[in-house]
Design brief:
The protein has 1064 residues and is an all-alpha fold. The chain is 63% helix and 2% strand. It is built from 39 helices and four strands. A two-stranded antiparallel ribbon has the order 1-2. Strands 3-4 form a two-stranded antiparallel sheet. Helix 11 (354-372) runs antiparallel to helix 14 (405-416). The chain is elongated, with a radius of gyration of 59 Å. The protein starts with a helix and ends in a 15-residue tail after the last helix. Residues 41-46, 93-105, 131-215, 312-320, 472-491 and 549-553 have low confidence and may be disordered.
């Protein structure tokens, strides 16, 4: 401080040298320690701290009090400016203000030291102002001893004793080691003041109680107390306890007062010490400010007493010119260009103006050579008395800085070639940058350009459709199930849209690259040179005017040094440069092979890149099309891509090659989609067929009712209600209702339709896809190729369906009963006749014919098995139900028609044929009925037939009547039955009687046995008999009264005619 004070006084007096060095060193050291010194390993609140911002280290603390005020104002102003411009690091404040528990290391030690000083000063002030609290609370009270007396009997303890006992127990809960300091995190933590006072009070109470010899302790039993002492002694003890309790309460209040005083002391020390220090600092600042003010006034008076220094004399210029000044101006212009070059280069690089940046770099290199190489100049700097390298070492350092921009310009210009949206002029400027700055031949620059565009294309082809986000968007949200059809349609529009964009982006990158390369390197119309050639010629030309063919191009491509210098912020200073630098142009050898590209080489290079790119595109498109699940989606992408290609501006051959690749990818994906659909339909068909047969085998007749055509025919479908559906779905609902009625009429049950729907839906979808492809005015060759690619898969599906049906039909495990055989026969019959599957699947004609023949043969085999099994079952049931009649009852029972057992058997046979699903319109229905009836009659009238009974004759006559109705094909069986009737006919019955009885029974049961009867032509209705059209085998003869049909018995009401019939 002595040296500092001495140097300050001497500097003010006028002896600045060498005392100003001490002032400067002191001020720099104080600034460093105050703001910039980093506390290594010490943090405040978890952050790094810089300097010492305490009040004791402030600037005004170094000056007298009368200078504190002006220095504070000046220092605050400078500090605010430095903080605003971020000249000093940010600090977390004084260590005294920080949290006590978060200051580690030396910063914490400093805070502890200052806290100790503050507490010491506070204790001194409190000692001077107030007196400390007396310590009588810690002095134990010794009550007099109680004389012992004999106890007269047990006495219960009083309430005061209970209170005293509870009070002692309460204070005894304070731990004995509570006064010991706690050790946490390596630091000694003192007890809270309340804990100190509680411990002190506990200790005082223990001493007070222990001082009374005759007062019992708190753990003495009251019964024992009354057993040892008299009543007067116990009362005396009670008074003593009250006195002890009173003393304890008094001392506890004194302890509370001590605790409050300690708490107040800590609160004042922690919360208000800064205020006390601030007051002291303010007083010190005021004193220092006064001293500074006085010193400034003295310095002012001293300065005013000194004489003014003489003004410097201006050198005179002779004849208005000075060669040395001109040389310095030239030198300053050269150095100014080198100094400003880095900033301008950064600015041009950020704006992606690489060609002007390269030009400026080359100009800076020429300027540097002009400064350092004197052997190449006519007038050297040394001749003017200037040594550039010795007097201006900044020139070489600045050039070292500028030289680093060359690699950056080349690197960033090369990377910018990946932007396929750049115009041809911008790309040409970048290629010229590489040609001039990196000395690359134009052929190599073209290779670099195509290589960078290949990387851009690869990044575009690496795109993949994000299926996870789509699945996430279609999941249930907020517990609600399902989404609307609009959302599902949007789900399928999204991949189509994204794949369209990805395909067009890749094609755009290829087409723009090809067009840009041709615009830059290809000659126009065979007479005009290429764009890059014209720019190189302009660089080497002496004229600064633009050529006529550049009217459509940017003027930045035809750059000159003069235009470049005018765009720089310090363009006026560069007017001092010599004319050869202002007209500088990079040297280009137009006759060299590096400055030109042969058209054949360019065409070959570009074609190789184009072929490689479209092959990569084909592989990527094949992966993208894998996310399209239908031919409609695929063809939508194809149509959009073809429209884009037609307006791409490429040559016809290139468009043709891209179209060919696109068609090949679409053809492969369409065939894959159809192949997956065929495989899925086959798997679904197999699963549904197996599950249906399993349900028929397990549920029996109950489940089979749903598969029965007769039961299905009388189950009316629900009529659509227009009020429950939207206006747009009314037509579709009625169409579904119409198709349901049509399926009922042809006997196509729900189970049968469920099994065949997968195959028919697949065939219908593929047929619609082919129609959609042909509707787009596609070439016949593409459609033919699609059909040729798809047809083997369709043929394989037909073969797999036949194989599945045959394997199922021949498996006893899957078809254990006639229900399964009936269902297999109906499936094979539908596939061979009325199902549109085989006609719409698109297989070859030979495969189509073979499929129908194979399924028909399978149907016949299954029907034969069914016929054998059904007839055997019906005959077995007939013979089981037929019981022999006792001879006594034979004379009294005279049959008049077929037996009930025969009628029941014929009804079972008719029902089985109906369940077979053989509509009367099918051509094989009548032969099936004939063969089934013949087989039944033959097996029924075999050796086990009962010949002797009269009922057997009536049954045989009825069977002969049924066989005779089917025509000449059954003549042999009819003759055999006739012969057996004649042989077994009794003498009292005529043969005509049996025939008449059989005819009458047939007229009565023709409705029940309609399935077993042949189809006859509808006779002309008789005017007298209106039921003759319904009873084709004659009306039954009346037996008791006139015959009344069922329609007459149950006449309809008058409103019956109002019911809607058909489409009315």
């Amino acid at each position: 401080m002595a040296y500092l004070t001495l140097s300050t006084v001497l500097c003010i007096v006028g002896f600045q040298c060498p005392w100003i060095v001490i002032q400067f060193g002191w001020f720099v050291g104080w600034v460093y320690l105050r703001f910039y010194k980093k506390h290594s390993g010490d943090t405040l609140g978890g952050t790094v701290t810089y300097g010492d911002r305490s009040e004791t280290f402030s600037l005004v603390s170094w000056f007298p009090p009368f200078l504190h005020k002006p220095l504070t104002l000046l220092g605050n102003f400078v500090f605010n400016l430095a903080t605003r411009f971020h000249l000093i690091p940010t600090s977390n404040g004084d260590v005294e203000i920080g949290s006590y528990n978060q200051v580690p290391g030396s910063a914490r030690a400093e805070a502890e030291r200052r806290r100790a000083l503050a507490l010491k000063a506070l204790d001194q002030r409190l000692a001077n102002s107030t007196s400390p609290v007396g310590g009588s609370s810690s002095t134990p009270v010794h009550p007099p001893r109680i004389p012992p007396q004999a106890a007269t009997g047990p006495v219960k303890p009083s309430n005061i004793e209970r209170q005293k006992s509870n009070t002692l127990n309460t204070y005894s809960m304070v731990p004995t080691n509570a006064s010991a300091p706690a050790i946490s995190n390596g630091h000694v933590s003192l007890l809270h003041p309340l804990e100190k006072q509680a411990t002190r009070a506990n200790r005082t109470l223990s001493m007070s109680v222990s001082g009374v010899d005759d007062v019992p302790s708190t753990d003495v039993d009251p019964d024992e107390l009354f057993a040892k002492h008299t009543i007067s002694e116990v009362k005396f003890m009670q008074q003593r306890l009250r006195h002890v309790e009173f003393n304890f309460l008094a001392r506890s209040r004194v302890a509370d007062a001590d605790a409050k005083q300690e708490e107040l002391r800590l609160m004042v020390g922690e919360r208000y010490r800064d205020l006390l220090q601030a007051s002291t600092s303010i007083i010190a600042i005021a004193t220092s400010a006064q001293r500074v003010k006085q010193a400034l006034e003295e310095a002012k008076e001293t300065i005013l007493l000194q004489e003014e220094p003489p003004l410097p004399q201006q050198p005179s210029l002779k004849n208005g010119s000075d060669a040395h000044l001109h040389t310095l101006q030239l030198l300053s212009a050269h150095i100014k260009l080198l100094l400003d070059a880095p900033e301008h280069l950064w600015r041009l690089i950020e704006r992606k103006k690489y060609f002007p940046a390269a030009w400026l770099f080359l100009l800076a290199r020429v300027v540097h050579r002009a400064l350092v190489r004197e052997d190449e100049q006519d007038v050297t700097w040394s001749s003017q008395g200037v040594s550039v390298l010795d007097e201006f070492p900044l020139v070489q350092r600045q050039w070292d800085t500028v030289a680093q921009f060359r690699s950056q310009i080349i690197h960033k210009a090369t990377l910018s070639l990946r932007d396929y949206d750049s115009s041809a002029e911008d790309t040409c400027a970048i290629l010229l940058t590489l040609h001039l700055l990196d000395s690359r031949p134009l052929m190599e620059s073209l290779s670099v350009f195509l290589a960078q565009r290949s990387k851009t294309l690869q990044s575009s082809l690496a795109w993949k459709y994000d299926l996870d986000s789509t699945n996430l968007s279609t999941k249930k949200q907020n517990g609600h199930a399902g989404q609307s059809s609009a959302v599902l349609s949007d789900f399928r529009r999204r991949p189509v849209k994204e794949i369209k964009e990805a395909t067009q982006t890749a094609l755009d990158a290829i087409s723009r690259t090809v067009k840009t390369a041709r615009s830059i390197f290809q000659e126009e119309d065979g007479c005009k040179s290429s764009l890059v050639r014209r720019v190189l010629e302009h660089i080497q030309s002496d004229s600064s005017t633009l050529p006529d063919q550049t009217q459509a191009h940017s003027t930045e491509l035809y750059l000159t040094t003069q235009s470049l210098l005018t765009t720089l912020p310090s363009s006026t200073h560069f007017l001092l440069l010599p004319p050869d630098l202002r007209s500088y142009k990079p040297y280009v050898d137009l006759n060299s092979s590096s400055s030109s590209i042969q058209p054949s080489q360019f065409a070959q290079k570009l074609d190789e890149w184009f072929q490689t790119s479209i092959l990569s595109l084909q592989r990527a498109v094949a992966g993208w099309f894998a996310d399209l699940h239908s031919v409609k989606e695929l063809w939508s992408v194809r149509a959009s891509t073809l429209r884009w290609l037609s307006t791409s501006g490429l040559e016809k051959s290139e468009i043709s090659e891209m179209t060919k690749i696109l068609d090949e990818s679409c053809k492969q994906r369409a065939a894959e989609i159809w192949r997956l659909k065929l495989a899925g339909s086959m798997d679904s068909f197999s699963q549904r067929l197996d599950s249906t047969l399993l349900s028929l085998a397990e549920s029996g007749k109950v489940r089979y009712k749903e598969a029965s055509p007769v039961n299905f025919l009388f189950q009316a479908p629900p009529i659509p209600n227009s009020t429950q559906s939207g206006l747009g779905s009314v037509d579709s609902s009625f169409q579904k209702y119409t198709s349901s009625l049509r399926r009922q009429l042809v006997g196509r049950t729900v189970l049968l339709d469920d099994v065949l729907a997968t195959l028919e839906s697949c065939a219908r979808t593929i047929r619609q896809d082919l129609a959609h492809v042909m509707a787009g005015n596609e070439s016949p060759e593409l459609v033919k190729q699609l059909e040729t690619t798809y047809r083997p898969d369709a043929d394989a599906l037909c073969a797999n369906v036949i194989e599945k049906l045959e394997r199922t039909a021949n498996s006893p495990e899957q078809v254990p009963n006639t229900d399964g055989l009936v269902f297999i026969s109906r499936v094979s019959d539908e596939l061979s006749t009325s199902s549109p599957f085989v006609s719409e699947i698109g297989c070859q004609p030979s495969v189509l014919q073979d499929f129908r023949e194979t399924t028909a043969a399978l149907h016949n085999r299954v029907v034969d098995r069914w016929q054998t099994h059904t007839v055997s079952s019906v005959v077995r049931e007939f013979r089981t139900a037929r019981r022999p009649i006792h001879p006594v009852l034979t004379a009294s029972l005279k049959p008049s028609g077929p037996s009930p057992e025969l009628v029941q058997s014929l009804l079972a046979l008719s029902t089985s044929i109906q369940d077979l699903g053989a509509p009367r319109s099918r051509p094989w229905q009548q032969p099936l009925v004939k063969t089934t009836l013949e087989h039944f009659v033959t097996e029924l009238t075999s050796e086990e037939w009962e010949e002797g009974s009269l009922q057997s004759l009536y049954d045989m006559a009825f069977l002969q009547k049924l066989v005779t109705l089917h025509g000449e094909a059954q003549d042999e069986l009819s003759s055999r039955l006739e012969k057996r009737l004649q042989e077994n006919l009794p003498s009292d019955i005529e043969l005509d009687t049996l025939h008449n009885s059989a005819a009458d029974a047939l007229s009565r049961t023709q409705t029940l046995f309609a399935t077993l009867l042949p189809q006859l032509s509808i006779p002309q209705p008789d005017s007298t008999d209106k039921f003759s059209a319904f009873l084709r085998f004659g009306a039954p003869l009346p037996q008791e009264g006139q015959f009344q049909p069922a329609v007459e018995v149950a006449k309809p009401r008058s409103r019956f005619g109002l019911l809607l019939v058909g489409g009315a």
